[in-house]
Design brief:
Strand content: 25-35%
CATH topology of the largest domain: Metallo-beta-lactamase, Chain A
CATH architecture of the largest domain: 4-Layer Sandwich
Number of strands: 14
Structural class: alpha/beta
Distance between the termini: 35 Å
Largest sheet: 8 strands, mixed
Number of helices: 9
Strand order of the largest sheet: 2-3-4-5-6-7-8-9
CATH class of the largest domain: Alpha Beta
């Protein structure tokens, strides 16, 4: 594990109200919520949840939402830290996590991501043109690697998880604040979405996160509310149950249509919603397709 020793400064204590709505338009609203210690979550406004580590006159941030939200995000970051984003970590490559990169890169933020993120942004995402150079990661992690930043009095560990939602999932552990940003490795409100990864990767990634956690750890997902250890464990348990059922169905030569008709997620749909994307991906993985 590489350690990057950054400058030390005094800890910023944040004592004000924990939820601030900021109206941006009739359709768009950002909210800022205190999570634990010096970590905050910015939600709403479309796209993925952001976490912010408030330092003394500076900040570290995970994910960047949409470019048109950059000024509003900066305003919230200044409110809790008194300064600008010095480090921006991308949880993975998809647009809801990286579209806002350029604005922060142009302002001098150092962008950290898995090597897949740099490769895709340089080439052009989803058939589009290359992202501006300011959006490209400056520091990349390779498969299975990790790094540690010492940011004021917080130890921030960035870990590449096995391919799950995508190939380049990173989880971010704010050790003193006892917060883990899982991004789309986990959701409290939708089934796992496979976009280059595997269901096995989801299980392994979340079990890795729980091994770093205790009963007071708070988890930030790519979408949805802040949750606790029991919620992440419930998601792992659900995946294992459904995986076992679908595996048994495949062993009985049931095709995808028959598996869908059998409704193997029935008792879980009230929590995780429509399994319409989850089950076909799980079936193809287990069937070796």
């Amino acid at each position: 594990m590489m350690a990057y020793l950054l400058s030390k400064a005094r800890w910023l204590s944040v004592h004000f109200c924990c939820l601030f709505p900021l109206a941006l338009s009739a359709q768009t609203e950002l909210q800022m919520e205190h999570v634990s210690g010096n970590v905050w979550m910015l939600s709403g406004g479309g796209y993925a949840n952001i976490s912010v580590l408030a330092g003394d006159g500076r900040a570290l941030m995970v994910d960047s939402k949409r470019p048109e939200l950059a000024d509003a995000i900066r305003g919230m970051v200044r409110e809790i830290s008194g300064g600008e984003v010095e480090y921006l970590i991308n949880g993975h490559v998809h647009p809801d996590h990286t579209d806002g990169n350029a604005g922060f890169g142009e302002s001098g933020a150092v962008i950290i991501a898995h090597e897949e993120v740099r490769r895709v942004l340089m080439a052009g995402q989803r058939g589009g043109p290359p992202a501006p150079e300011a959006a490209w990661p400056d520091i990349v992690l390779s498969d299975g690697s990790s790094m540690t930043l010492y940011f004021d009095e917080e130890t921030v560990t960035i870990i590449h998880a096995q391919p799950a939602h995508s190939l380049g999932n990173l989880m971010v552990h704010y050790q003193q604040s006892n917060v883990i940003h899982l991004g789309d490795l986990y959701s409290p409100e939708r089934y796992p979405v496979l976009a280059g990864g595997s269901i096995e990767g989801f299980v392994e990634g979340n079990e890795m996160a729980l091994a770093l956690a205790d009963n007071n750890t708070r988890f930030i997902a790519g979408n949805g509310i802040v949750t606790g250890r029991a919620d992440v464990q419930a998601c792992i348990d659900m995946v294992k149950v459904v995986r076992g059922r679908v595996s048994q169905m495949i062993s009985r030569d049931m095709d995808l249509d028959a598996v869908l008709a059998a409704n193997p997620t029935a008792e879980f749909d009230a929590t995780w919603g429509d399994p319409g994307r989850f089950l076909p991906g799980l079936y193809r993985e287990l069937a070796g397709q």
